[in-house]
């Protein structure tokens, strides 16, 4: 028996160490190529005559139908510019180019649709974690943040974020997005905001590629906005929510997103100051999640905790979720949507490095798994039970953390990042709740803020230098590499400058905006409204009218 | 007043990290300055702004 136990232990240790060994070991040298026995035949160039003679199905054959698909999609489907000449090499090249861009359009749009569906996940996670008396109000905030945010982003936000991004080659170039406002600082250009793209019509931005980019970036922006509604739930005045969300969608989010993704100064830290490949954030741990989480922190601080959350001596009371079933269902919807979030951020499947979508998707699912494990084990060991809501938050924390590094790390790195995120979210929730005494009903500050920052930092550690998106990133030749894979620390400094920008600048901007909302609109509902539940006083209808307790007359 | 001071300190941390780009060209030096900036910003948020709001917290009014 002892021997069996030892063998099992040995097997477990070997299983744990093996992937690390594989990840760290240098690639094995390729086997020597077999000696050439004959020179390879010189490729014969294709001519227009070859194309003209390409076999195409006859009209009679097509008229009989094509049950096995062998007659559909042939040379006869290539668009011909001059019918007299027939198909030419020029026609063929144009068709190949259009096919490439079409693949990228479809990929980016479909992944954008997946991200849009995450709004449903956020809505039921947040509503489930709140009390039944606030269900309509919480759901309505999550529902309307989609419209409010989109309006702000269409009017001005997209122009600020992407108006100067330049060519997005995967989407056909997007040449109208070419005006970035920049100042000169320390002898280098500091891009601050884009200028083209107001209303999606300004300066030639009524363009098919720009439309695809807008849709994808819009759903990302809305994800950031909906994070705040969870942290401020159960006491946020609806009118204040509308104004605050509009300001965030129009200014706060687009500004930082421009600096990171729109050709702004953070992305150019590598080109201008030799810091690695500049600030890197593949799919938005910083741009989306940390911006949302940090704004949630600012709003929660200003609004204050719910009545009953803390006793007079500052002890925290647990206010229980009303429906854990929809909370975990929502977590699954979010995990599903994340397959749009991260792999979709390649903005194409047919491009340099586009086939990394496979490893990006796998990294995403692994980190989510590791996050839920980390949180479940932490809670189980610390409190004796595998807490359901924290396991869900662990899954989300792992997904948030892998969002930035998903395109730059290997699967072992992804699991470590996710596992740390799962434990970190539990520690952060306790710190925010018990030390800072900030009331966050859904844990949004910890899931998205803390782990968004962790995701940004993790690139500086775990990026393995194996990704290749066209030979460079942010205009610097080479692959993104972290400290554990031989970088000199420059990449880590770039990532940390991004972190301080989020903590120092984005927080301040969000705080000022929400302080103004507090002065002019008022952020918090009255104590009477809060005790009654926000559904009737704020929305005019209960979320669950049948559940209302009626006193017999 | 404490809100204004807290905001200025939070922003100061950000400025320190930006200034690291010109004050030194060594990676180590920049790392130290950026971490200092992070600490200053966190102090502004946790040590000043949050402290102000805790002083007037709803649960203390009873």
Residues in β-strands, percent of chain A: under 5%
- CATH-assigned fold name of chain A: Ammonium transporter fold
Q: Regarding quaternary structure, how should these chains be classified?
A: heterodimer
Unreliable sequence segments of chain B: none
Structural class of chain B: mainly alpha
Major sheet summary line of chain A: 2 strands, antiparallel
Q: Looking at this structure, what is the CATH superfamily of chain A?
A: Ammonium transporter AmtB like domains
Task: Give a structural overview.
The complex is a heterodimer of chains A (553) and B (62). Chain A is mainly alpha-helical and 553 residues long. Chain A contains 17 helices and 4 strands. In chain A, strands 1-2 form a two-stranded antiparallel ribbon. In chain A, strands 3-4 form a two-stranded antiparallel ribbon. Chain B is 89% helix and 0% strand. Chain B has helices spanning 2-23, 27-55, 58-61. Chain B contains 3 helices and no strands.
Write a concise keyword list for the protein shown above.
heterodimer; A: 553 residues; mainly alpha; Ammonium transporter fold; two-stranded antiparallel ribbon; 3% strand; disordered N terminus; B: 62 residues; elongated
Would you summarize the structure shown here?
The complex is a heterodimer of chains A (553) and B (62). Helices cover 58% and strands 3% of the residues of chain A. Chain A has 553 residues and is mostly helical.
List the SSEs and their pairings.
The complex is a heterodimer of chains A (553) and B (62).
Chain A: H1 2-24, H2 48-52, H3 59-63, H4 89-129, H5 135-162, E1 180-185, E2 188-194, H6 208-231, H7 238-261, H8 269-273, H9 285-303, H10 324-341, H11 357-383, H12 388-403, H13 411-435, H14 444-462, E3 472-473, E4 476-477, H15 490-520, H16 527-532, H17 535-539
Antiparallel strand pairs in A: 1-2, 3-4
Helix pairs in contact in A: 4-5, 4-6, 4-10, 5-6, 5-7, 6-7, 6-9, 7-9, 7-15, 9-14, 9-15, 10-12, 11-12, 11-13, 12-13, 12-14, 13-14, 14-15
Chain B: H1 2-23, H2 27-55, H3 58-61
